[in-house]
Amino acid sequence: MADKKAVCVDAEYLPQIITEYKDNPFIEALPPIYSAGKAADLLTVEPGYHEAERELDALYRFHCIQRLSRYFQPLDTHIDIEQRVSRSIRQSYVDRNPVVVFDKTDFRSVRSTAAGFTVIGMSGVGKTTAMERVLSLYPQCIVHTHYAGKPFYVKQLVWMKLDCPYDGSIKGLCLNYFNEMDRILGSEYSKIFPSSRNTVDTMLVKMSTLSSTHGLGLLVIDEIQHLSQAKSGGSEKMLNFFVTLVNTIGVPVVLIGTTKAMPILQSEFRQARRGSGQGDLFWERLPNDLSWEIMLQSMWKYQWTKKICPLTKELKDTLYDESQGIMDLGVKLYAIAQTKAIAGGTEAVTPELIREVAAEKLRLVKPMLDALRSGNMKKIMQYEDIRPISIEDYIAVQAARIPIGEISPQAISSLEEQAILKLLEMDIPSKMARQCVKKALSGTKSGQPLSKLVQKAFKLALHITESTGKSDEVLVADEKDMRQSAGENAYQNLKESGAIAENAEW
């Protein structure tokens, strides 16, 4: 995930309802067990959106469209993964209670209760994104100093996520492990156990020891299809190591990969058995049913074309046909279609436009999409991966199409739009925000800073609300209205009349 050092949080112990979870600092320091509804709320990522942004110049709207890359709408599969992770981490600590274990002289007497699982599916369905969103609900590092009135100093490593090296190298995985642990804990294990002076077998033993010492709760290995590149029994050796982690110290291992990883897992019976502790999850593309509609309905409100385009059945079916239910493709096609509609001046997302951008941007994955449409599993299994699509590259191309004359014809136009957005952020209704900004701009000299314009417009909006009691009052031209007749002196007249407060802070 992120390269920067993880934030370690101080332990705060929560009371537990389940008996075997009580009096265990590793479990009590975890966040609460979430209901499905609460988990959905926490997992949701909504990009910022203001309706007034639809009136911005094209180049500004291109920036807004890129927010869709952060969009995340949890569905049933995401909630399923959250609950599996919740059970896996807690169950892994049941028989690794540090308060009890530290009093034992024989660590081998600790019985493993770890139960990992596998997540297999084609690229683009959202496996990695979903897992990272779920893991973000848990702190990576929890610092314990006292428990039950006694000194207890441990840096608990709740979870760790590693990518399997592209060549399936065990040594590469070991190095990733030590580097990631150093990043999270602020340690220097990568210097203490350098690969130059340690064999792979030695490094694996030390990884097991460190996992136990720091109470590693869950190990996630992504891109396990790379094990197919391992030579000389490398895949078998690495899978055996995962099994050792589970069996000896009780660390559950979650394996994530594309359908190319299926033969590897099926050939290793012991790993297949252990990987099914919480049940295997074969992540299919979304069917064209309620789940697809929920995802689109939630996403469709993020629309920056000047024409509002309702989500019709034809649009829903067209987007499904062109993406084949692969969420990553669906979101990117929607973003690219908006970009092209804005750049081309049509300002509307239509089924024809979606098919047009799909033909442009999905040429390289067309064979795979055709295989999915056919439903032929033999053809589908040939394409375990999807070439990533870049929204940024497409926006750059479309931005170059916009004539210079159409980019903010007057500097004051951009200033006006920015001021309107600032007022919207202050909860000023859209209609009032526009009217007040236009009024504040009238008669003023060009080149005034944005902050001054926002001050004037906000004070106008405040006075209207106070004098009328209505937040949606429209400014009306009236020769008796000091705001209308005073021109550049409008602010001073209003101030002298007592209509504007003296101590506004900006």
Labels describing this entry:
3 domains, disordered C terminus, Rossmann fold, 5-stranded parallel beta sheet, alpha/beta, 8 strands, 506 residues, 3-stranded mixed beta sheet, globular, 24 helices, single chain
Distance between the termini: 38 Å
Count up the domains: 3
The percent range for helix content is: 40-55%
Main sheet: strand order: 5-6-7-2-8
Q: Based on CA inertia axes, which overall geometry fits? A: globular
CATH fold group of the largest domain: Rossmann fold
| Rounded Rg | 29 Å
Q: Tally of extended strands?
A: 8
Count helical runs. Answer: 24
Which percent band covers the strand fraction? 5-15%
Mean pLDDT: 78
Main sheet? 5 strands, parallel
The CATH superfamily of the largest domain is identified as P-loop containing nucleotide triphosphate hydrolases
- Named at the architecture level, the CATH assignment of the largest domain is 3-Layer(aba) Sandwich
- Given as residue ranges, the uncertain stretches (5+ residues, pLDDT < 50) are 103-110, 404-411, 471-488, 497-506
Find the structural class using helix and strand composition. Answer: alpha/beta
What is the CATH class designation of the largest domain?
Alpha Beta
Question: Which secondary structure elements does this structure contain, and how are they paired or packed?
Answer:
Blueprint: E1 8-10, H1 25-28, H2 36-43, H3 58-65, H4 76-94, H5 98-101, E2 117-121, H6 127-135, E3 141-147, E4 150-157, E5 159-163, H7 170-185, H8 189-192, H9 200-213, E6 218-222, H10 234-249, E7 253-257, H11 262-267, H12 269-275, E8 281-283, H13 290-300, H14 313-323, H15 327-344, H16 351-361, H17 366-374, H18 377-380, H19 391-399, H20 411-425, H21 430-441, H22 450-468, H23 482-485, H24 490-496
Parallel strand pairs: 1-3, 2-7, 2-8, 5-6, 6-7
Antiparallel strand pairs: 3-4
